[in-house]
Design a protein that fits this description.
Blueprint: E1 17-21, H1 23-28, E2 40-43, H2 45-53, H3 60-76, H4 81-86, E3 88-89, E4 95-97, E5 102-104, E6 109-112, H5 130-142, E7 149-153, H6 157-165, E8 170-171, E9 189-192, H7 196-200, E10 204-209, E11 212-217, E12 230-233, E13 239-247, E14 250-255, H8 274-283, E15 290-295, H9 301-315, E16 321-326, H10 342-346, H11 351-361, H12 368-382, E17 383-385, E18 399-404, H13 411-418, E19 426-431, H14 447-455, E20 461-466, H15 473-481
Parallel strand pairs: 1-2, 1-7, 2-6, 7-8, 9-12, 15-19, 15-20, 16-17, 16-18, 18-19
Antiparallel strand pairs: 3-6, 4-5, 10-11, 11-14, 12-13, 13-14
Length: about 475
C-alpha cells in the first residue's frame, strides 16, 4: 500500500476524529463541510469527480452539487499546493448557510486526496465502482498510524453495509435529523391527571373577557408548557384549554371552543373527536399564523383545513383566497408528462381536494343541484392550485395556504415555502410521517418533522397530532391490521 504522506502532519489528538465524506453527503447537505466541529475531513478525488458529474441541471441534486463545489472552490482558491497537502483550516474560511443565513463554525481541517492510493480490498468486492474506491481509501487511512480514528460517512445504505462487512468504521450523516426517535415528536397535547386541581387549586385565577374564559395558573410544573399547547385534565378531558401566554408570573390558558354541535360547526363540519376539536381551534384562530396537523389517513386533516379556510375566506373575509399545493411524489410508477396549464397539471395530484370539496358542498341538502353547482363555481374562483416548483421568489399576501402531503418535503423545501408568506398569510401543513414516498427521507429527517419540532415554542404556531380515524370502519380496520 502506498503511504498517504499528505496527512502525516495530522497528529493523534484526544477525541479528535477524521471523517471520510461520501459524495451523497455533500449532495444531501453541501454545508456538511462545516458541520463536524473540531474534527477533520478527508475528500477522496472520486468524490470531486462525482460532484462534477451531478452539477448539471435544475434539480435539487444539481443545485447542491454546485453549492458544494463552490464551498470547495472558496477553500482552495488562495491555498498553495503545500497548504492543500497539509490540510486546509476550515475556521479560516467559515462557510455560510444560505438557507439559515448563519455562519457555519468549524475548527478542523479539510484534506483533499492529492496522491494515488492503492489498497487491497477483499476479493468479495469485485469491480471498479466508485464506492469501492472510497472504501479502499478509507481502509488505507485506517492503517496509517499517524491518523486519528477514521470513520466513513455515507448516506448510501449499501455502502455502509459493505463497509461494516469488511471492518471499516462507518456512520450515517445525521446532522439534519430533527429527532433521534419519531416517538419523541411533539404532539401538541398535554394530558394531566385529575389530581392536578387538588395540587393547584389555590394557584388559579379565573376571569371572563369578551366572551372567553381565561385561567392563570402558577407553579413550577406549568413553566414547561408551550405556546398554543392544548392542556386537558383527566382521561375524560373534563377541562380543555389552550396555553396563551407563559411568563415568570404564571401561565394564562383559555378554555377552548366546542365545535361538536351543528350550531357551532365550521362550514357544516363538526368535530368528531377531541383532537379534531383542538385542530379546529388552532385553524380558526387568526393569531396563529402556522398550523401543522399530523395523523394517519382518514383522521380528517384536509377536510378540517379546508372547512376552516372556506369559513375564513368566504364568511369572515380574513383571507383573499385559499392556495393549495403539495409535493408531487408518486406512490407507484410515474404516468409521464401532464398536459395543460399549471393548475391542470396539478389537478391529478389534488384528488384529496376534490374529494373533500364534494363533502363540503353536499352538506346543504336543501340547495338542490343548481345551488350545489353555483357553490362549486364560486369556490373554484377562491381556491387556487399551485405547484411547489414555482414558489421561489413569490410572496403571498393575505392568503390561506394549505400544504398537503408535507411529509415528502425536505427541511430546505419546507423553508422555501414557508418563507413565501407575507403579511396576513396563514400556512397549514398536513401530513402523515408514516407515509413518506420520497426515497431519501425518513420519519426523523422529514421536513414536516423538522418544522413541528422547530415551531413548537413560537407563540404564533400550533400543532396537533390526530390519532383517531374518522373515514370509515373499513379504513380504520385496514389501518390497524395491514
Amino acid at each position: 500500500m502506498t503511504e498517504i504522506t499528505q496527512t502525516e502532519t495530522h497528529v493523534q489528538q484526544d477525541n479528535k476524529r477524521l471523517f471520510v465524506l461520501d459524495t451523497n453527503v455533500l449532495i444531501h447537505d453541501p454545508s456538511a463541510l462545516f458541520r463536524f466541529s473540531e474534527h477533520d475531513l478527508f475528500l477522496p478525488m472520486v468524490v470531486l469527480e462525482e460532484l462534477d458529474n451531478n452539477k448539471k441541471g435544475h434539480s435539487e441534486v444539481a443545485r447542491n452539487a454546485r453549492q458544494a463545489s463552490r464551498f470547495l472552490d472558496d477553500l482552495t482558491s488562495d491555498a498553495t499546493p503545500e497548504e492543500i497537502k497539509n490540510g486546509l483550516d476550515l475556521n479560516q474560511r467559515i462557510g455560510y448557510d444560505e438557507d439559515s443565513e448563519e455562519a457555519l463554525l468549524a475548527s478542523g481541517k479539510l484534506f483533499l486526496q492529492t496522491e494515488y492510493v492503492s489498497t487491497e480490498l477483499p476479493i468479495t468486492l469485485p469491480g471498479q465502482k466508485n464506492d469501492n474506491a472510497i472504501l479502499g481509501i478509507t481502509v488505507a487511512l485506517q492503517k496509517d498510524a499517524h491518523l486519528a480514528q477514521v470513520t466513513l460517512i455515507s448516506k448510501d445504505i449499501n455502502l455502509r453495509i459493505k463497509a461494516a462487512a469488511i471492518g471499516v468504521s462507518v456512520e450515517d450523516y445525521n446532522n439534519d435529523q430533527a429527532l433521534e426517535d419519531v416517538n419523541l415528536l411533539y404532539s401538541g397535547i398535554l394530558t394531566l391527571p385529575q389530581s392536578f386541581w387538588d395540587l393547584h387549586d389555590k394557584e388559579v385565577d379565573s376571569w371572563i373577557e369578551e366572551g372567553h374564559t381565561y385561567h392563570k395558573i402558577t407553579g413550577d410544573e406549568v413553566k414547561k408548557w408551550l405556546p398554543n399547547q392544548v392542556i386537558r385534565i383527566g382521561d375524560d378531558a373534563s377541562f380543555e384549554a389552550i396555553v396563551r401566554e407563559n411568563t415568570n408570573e404564571g401561565v394564562i390558558v383559555e378554555q377552548i371552543h366546542q365545535y361538536y354541535s351543528e350550531k357551532q360547526s365550521v362550514w357544516g363540519i363538526m368535530a368528531r373527536n377531541h383532537e379534531q376539536n383542538y385542530a379546529l381551534n388552532l385553524l380558526m384562530d387568526p393569531e396563529i399564523d402556522f398550523v401543522s396537523l399530523v395523523g394517519q389517513a382518514g383522521t380528517g386533516k384536509t377536510l378540517l383545513a379546508l372547512a376552516a379556510g372556506l369559513t375564513q375566506v368566504m364568511d369572515d373575509k380574513l383571507y383573499q383566497e385559499i392556495i393549495m399545493t403539495r409535493a408531487t411524489v408518486s406512490v407507484g410508477d410515474d404516468i409521464g408528462f401532464l398536459p395543460g396549464t399549471e393548475e391542470e397539471k396539478m389537478a391529478p395530484w389534488m384528488g384529496a381536494l376534490m374529494d373533500n370539496l364534494e363533502v363540503l358542498t353536499n352538506n346543504n341538502e336543501e340547495a338542490g343541484e343548481w345551488g350545489k353547482q353555483a357553490t362549486n363555481d364560486l369556490l373554484a374562483t377562491r381556491i387556487k392550485i399551485r405547484s411547489l416548483n414555482f414558489m421561489r421568489g413569490r410572496t403571498f399576501l393575505n392568503r390561506y395556504i394549505i400544504l398537503d402531503e408535507a411529509q415528502n418535503l425536505t427541511s430546505k423545501q419546507m423553508k422555501t415555502l414557508i418563507t413565501r408568506a407575507g403579511p396576513g398569510t396563514k400556512i397549514i401543513c398536513l401530513g402523515n410521517i408514516a407515509q413518506i414516498d420520497t426515497p431519501y427521507l425518513t420519519e426523523t429527517t422529514s421536513g414536516l418533522t423538522f418544522v413541528v419540532d422547530r415551531f413548537r415554542k413560537w407563540e404564533h404556531s400550533g400543532h396537533i397530532t390526530l390519532k383517531r380515524g374518522e373515514r370509515s370502519r373499513l379504513a380504520d380496520f385496514a389501518s390497524d391490521v395491514l
